[in-house]
Design goal:
The protein is an alpha/beta fold and 487 residues long. It is built from 19 helices and eleven strands. The chain is globular, with a radius of gyration of 29 Å.
């Protein structure tokens, strides 16, 4: 009996020791798990604690709005306060050297983590295999912060290569006084649009000559030099039956008779005397200067923010403080849609600029990619986006930006606001189905043939037919006889 009791006591002791060891072992094993969970909660991305290591995210950004670059130090500081383990390092670039600087860094294999681009450049960088798909690091909640149409501009297939900063309409703009003097019902145009024939007659009526027969005011001026070298043609093409380089069957569209008709109209407006003969040398700065000094009735390309730029210059004129543009006059800016050509429907050129994520020679670590996602969302949403869109007179494209306070409220013309809303309502989503190799080949034709031939056409060195033939020949060479539109 005693022997049995002693055996039972020993068995009970062993069980207690095993239980104690199991409890201690369990406690020790749970400690790092708790730490990992805390790290995951901090990162709010479900990633491992690796993402809490010190990291630097680089960004190359242009002067998106008047005060955007001036806020870079403040933005870097705020981001670090939000994520103490992360450093956001922003490199400023001018509009003129933004693309060149980015391309140089990409070619060297050391691009910034984040760069500002127009969404049309995505296919170019996708072809170079330097873009990062953000789908794996952007939560459904983050994606839902952005409007659907601008988000699609940064997609190719199923990949999300960036986030939108804004959606703007490339329009044209008129001097209210000159429009009225020329008998143009600009309110009706804002509401209903106009055809090319109507537009052609309107800009003829806007031409003013001096006593010697020299043109002192043109009906229409569009910037076509430098960074704006391709804008004129591409913006007008949208409403000329050529909304994309490819149709639904992936056939190149600029071989259509609609393209030739557009080229003939572009040359016709110069030959009419409604546009300057030296149009090919007019860049964005000169174009705006001509508007403010009364040398043109209508200017392009136009942006919503031009209303504020004109207003600010008017205030400087009234203050007589010498800071206004030299020889400028008071001008009230009227937002107008581009005309439609070839009997086509008006389709505005919806411009979506934003931020893309890039990789260098090596794939980024999972933690670094996660941190890029945090930074790119910060730059394109909330108060950062609210302020640069506000300065551009644009509506934010993210809910967080719409709910954020802005630093300054600007007066706005109700007529222009309504006109912009009408133009915005006609914007169509970007095509995400066009294969990367086709898009890249189209950009190559644009760069090597379309842009230089357009400059020659504007300078009256070649005819519309000669430009059309050159583009058609290049397209057939790239896509074959069956890969282009024939009508």
């Amino acid at each position: 009996m005693k022997k049995g009791l002693r055996g039972f006591t020993m068995l009970l002791t062993v069980i207690m020791l095993v239980s104690l060891l199991a409890a201690c072992g369990g406690k020790n094993n749970n400690t790092p798990n708790a730490t990992n969970n805390a790290g995951n909660a901090t990162n709010s991305g479900g990633n491992s604690s690796e993402s809490l290591e010190k990291d630097t995210i680089t960004a190359l950004l242009p002067p998106a709005s008047a005060n955007f670059q001036a806020r870079f130090p403040e933005m870097e500081k705020e981001f670090n306060e939000m994520y103490p383990h992360l450093t956001l390092k922003i490199e400023p670039a001018s509009w003129e050297d933004m693309t060149q600087k980015l391309d140089t860094q990409v070619n060297a294999g050391s691009p910034p983590d984040i760069a500002w681009v127009g969404s049309t450049a995505i296919s170019k960088y996708a072809a170079l295999d330097v873009l990062l798909d953000l789908n794996q690091v952007l939560s459904d909640e983050v994606k839902a912060d952005y409007d659907e149409v601008p988000m699609k501009f940064f997609q190719l297939g199923d990949a999300q290569y960036g986030l939108p900063a804004y959606l703007a309409i490339h329009s044209i703009g008129g001097n209210k006084q000159f429009l009225e003097e020329a008998g143009i019902d600009y309110k009706a145009v804002q509401e209903n649009g106009w055809t090319y024939d109507e537009f052609r007659e309107a800009i003829k009526a806007g031409v003013v000559k001096d006593d010697k027969g020299n043109t002192s005011r043109y009906g229409f001026v569009f910037a076509t030099s430098g960074v704006t070298s391709k804008d004129y043609l591409s913006i007008m093409a949208k409403s000329a039956g050529l909304p994309e380089y490819f149709d639904e069957d992936y056939k190149f569209t600029y071989t259509s008779k609609n393209f030739l008709g557009l080229l003939e109209a572009i040359r016709q407006m110069i030959d009419d005397g409604s546009m300057p003969k030296e149009l090919s040398s007019i860049d964005a700065g000169k174009r705006w200067n001509m508007f403010l000094t009364g040398q043109t009735m209508i200017t392009g390309k136009g942006l919503a923010s031009f209303e504020n730029s004109a207003r600010l210059n008017n205030e400087k004129i009234k203050a007589n403080d010498g800071s206004a543009v030299a020889d400028s006059i008071e001008a009230e800016y009227i937002a107008l849609p581009v005309p439609s050509f070839n009997g086509a429907d008006y389709i505005p050129t919806a411009v979506v600029d934003g931020f893309i994520a890039l990789r260098g020679k090596k794939e980024p670590s999972e933690a670094h990619l996660h941190n890029i996602g945090l930074a790119i969302h910060y730059l394109s949403s909330g108060s950062v986006a609210a302020n640069f869109t506000n300065e551009l007179f644009l509506s934010p494209v993210s809910e967080s930006a719409r709910n954020a306070e802005v630093l300054e409220v600007y007066p706005r013309s109700e007529e222009n606001l309504k006109a912009d809303e009408i133009m915005m309502s006609k914007a169509v989503a970007a095509r995400t189905d066009i294969p990367t190799e086709l898009a890249a080949e189209a950009i190559k034709i644009e760069t090597e043939v379309i842009v230089p031939k357009l400059q020659a056409l504007l300078a009256d060195e070649i005819s519309p037919q000669e430009m059309y033939d050159a583009v058609k020949a290049a397209a057939i060479k790239s896509f074959g006889e069956d890969g282009v539109v024939v009508d």
